[in-house]
Amino acid sequence: MKILIGGSPCTKWSIAQKNNRETKPEGLGWELFENYLIAKGKFKPDYFLYENNKSAAQPIKDQISKELGVDLMYINSALVSAQNRQRFYAFNWEVDQPEDRGILLRDIL
User: Fold this and answer.
1) Residues 87 and 101 sit within 8 Å (Cβ to Cβ)
2) What are phi and psi of 97, to 5 degrees?
3) Phi–psi pair at 34, nearest 5 degrees
4) pLDDT tens across the length of the chain (109 residues)
5) Which of 84, 78, 82 is nearest to 97 (CA)?
């Protein structure tokens, strides 16, 4: 069984990007995602997972969903880790939204 797990750097797609934020499926950010597609095509994994920043523009997320042939799932990493980070995931197996494990100490700090 082969599994491909990855995510390209989100710098160009993040809302934190003040200059030259990419909002369409083109440019350096998209080229980095295309490398994931190349790996997926070359290795033909039985299962794959791709993740990135939820703040990526909708046209980019729509094209990723189309290219990978799956719907995206949105998960805040705070549910299962000590990082409060909104992410999107694309994968080809059944996954339920995780329950909050209470790891993030947001109420104490």
Assistant:
1) no
2) -60, 130
3) -60, -30
4) 999 999 988 888 988 887 889 999 999 999 999 999 999 999 999 999 999 999 999 999 999 999 999 999 999 988 888 888 899 999 999 988 888 888 876 555 5
5) 78
Structure tokens at 89: 């995931």
User: Scanning the structure block, which residue is given the tokens 């750097």?
Assistant: 9
Which among 27, 61, 34 is positioned nearest to 6, based on CA atoms?
A: 34
* Cα pseudo-dihedral 92, 97, 103, 109, rounded to 10: 120
Which two three-digit tokens encode residue 48?
Answer: 């794959």
Are 90 and 64 contacting, i.e. CB atoms less than 8 angstroms apart?
A: yes
